[in-house]
Each structure stands twice: as structure tokens, then as C-alpha cells.
Amino acid sequence: MPQNSASRPGDVAPSRYPGERLGLPESGPRSVGRVGRRIGAIAVDWAIASFLSFAFFRYDSWATIGLFALLQVIFIPTIGGSIGHRVFGMRVVALRGGWVGVWRPVVRTVLLCLAIPALVWDSDQRGFHDKVAGTVLIRA
Predict the structure, then answer these.
(1) Are 53 and 67 in contact (CB under 8 A)?
(2) Tell me, what's the pLDDT at 3?
(3) CA 76 → CA 23, 31, 116, 123, distances in Å?
(4) Is residue 58 in a domain?
(5) C-alpha to C-alpha distance for 15 and 76, rounded to whole angstroms
(6) Long-range contacts of range 11-14, CB-CB < 8 Å, 24 or more positions apart?
(7) The domain containing residue 101 runs over which residues?
(8) How many domains does the chain have?
């Protein structure tokens, strides 16, 4: 009798929706923040950083990315996400629960500023930057 792929030792059944393997609900509060919200959030954060860069540094590209990173590192541990995350009803949480701390936002932000990790994600829609930092972006 043939076996399905999930019944062999070491195999994992495919998840039905993003976040299922993490124990998160399919939709609503605490579900994984989807791509549309993420793009909106990063656009808001980049617009804020660009405005501040224009106002104080004549729109210097290094100042813009530095301000973007600073906003991420300050607001993720203090209000649970960047301004863009909060505007779009999301927050960053530690995968294992508890306070996200300071090191997770720093690691997450450094990788996010490299851009490529944010463009590579798994079946739970967690970017590489979230996987390395042990975080997940959820709906608030």
C-alpha cells in the first residue's frame, strides 16, 4: 500500500496556511501578517525615513537607510513594531513568546537593510530576517 509523503519518518506534512506550523490562526488577530500589509508597512517606514532625511540631511541615501534602521530598532521593542507595522495593524513578536528584546530588532533590521533576506521567505511567509531573529510579524 503506498504511503503519503507525510507518513515517512522525518517528513513534515505541508501546512494548509501560513503560520499553521507556528501554531498561529489562519486569519484574524495573531495570524501571520500577509505580503500586502508588509509592503504597505515598509512603504510608510521608508517614507518617514525619507522625509527625515530630506529635512535634516538633504536626502542623503546613507542617512535615509540609517534613519530607517533607527526607527525599526527603536520602535519594535517599545511599541511592538515600526510605525508602518502599527499603521497596518501588525506587530513583531518573538517566536518563543515574551518581550522581543533589543538584539532581535537589531539583527532583524541589519538583515532587512540588506533587502535580499526580506525578499526570501518560507511557507509561513517569514522572511529570512525574521527566521534568523526568531521573530514573526503578526496581525495585532
Answers:
(1) yes
(2) 47
(3) 22, 18, 20, 24
(4) yes
(5) 28
(6) 14/123
(7) 26-139
(8) 1
**Location of C-alpha cell 503578526:** 138
70: its cell numbers: 533607527
H/E segment holding residue 132: helix 128-133
pLDDT higher than threshold 70 for residue 40: yes
Amino acid at 10: G
Return the SS3 of 4. Answer: coil
126 within domain boundaries: yes
Q: Which three-class secondary structure state does DSSP give residue 91?
A: strand
A 10 A CB-CB count for 3 gives 8
82 occurs within a structural domain: yes
> pTM score > 0.90 for this model?
no
d(CA 61, CA 107): 21
- Give residue-wise pLDDT tens across range 42-82: 999 999 999 999 999 999 999 999 999 999 999 999 999 99
Pairing of strands 90-94, 135-139: antiparallel
Place of cell 503519503: 4
The type of residue at 97 is G
- Judge whether 21 lies within some domain: no
